[in-house]
Each structure stands twice: as structure tokens, then as C-alpha cells.
Predict the 3D structure of the following.
Amino acid sequence: MRVDGKRLCDEQLKIRVRRRFRRDPPIDWFRILADLQYAGINNADVARILGVPESNVRTNWKHGGRPNYEDGAALVKLHHLVMTLKQERQKSAALAVI
């Protein structure tokens, strides 16, 4: 029962439960590493920046393995930073042409 005294019907309850337990789509680690490589950061650089063995990046993560939470969060932050800088450079280059 809600505060206003009205009951929620079964369909409303199902919708609320589905929203609560919705999962984010899985992260494509291969795509993230490919984007970084395309931006000029190779696997050895990624490993050095994150402080993990290069074999983790080269063999595990690139071939379907998942990093632990801390390494994965750091990799996502690195990807965000590099892609943001890349977009800013592209915008400034486009403005310089005009």
C-alpha cells in the first residue's frame, strides 16, 4: 500500500521490479583497447599507466577476459580521458580550417 492509500496493481509492481533489476550492457573491453590503440596508446602503455602486467592487457582483456573492478574502472577512465582529448583536438583543428 502506498502513502496515499491506493494500492498498486500487479502490473505496476512488475514494472517497478524490472526497472530496479535492469542491468547495464556488458562492457566491450576489446573495443575500449582498440580505441586506445587507434588513438596512439599501445597495450604496453595501457599496462604501464594502469600498473598491471602487459600480459593482462595483451592476452586476457583483449581476448574476452574481464579486468577486476579497480583495473576496469581505471581503464574506462583512461578511455574517457583519451577520447575527450581526441574530440577536442578534432574540434580545434576544424575551427582552425574555418
Notes: The longest helix spans residues 69-97. The chain has a mean pLDDT of 82. The chain has five helices and no strands.
